[in-house]
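subagent[fold] <- orchestrator: predict structure for attached chain, return tokens only, no commentary.
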Amino acid sequence: MIHENIQAEFINGEIIYHSPVRMRHLQISSWVSKQLMLFVDEQDLGFVGIEK
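subagent[fold] -> orchestrator:
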């Protein structure tokens, strides 16, 4: 049984558990995403989508 607070998905008949993101990783990926969005917006290049 998988609880709601567990990050997991069902792939090819197997449960794959995801480890939580570390704070430093989250900070860096947020900063990079922000910089990329600013650049894309300034250059009118389109849309930047972010997925965890």
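orchestrator: received. Logging for downstream: The radius of gyration is 16 Å. The mean pLDDT is 89.
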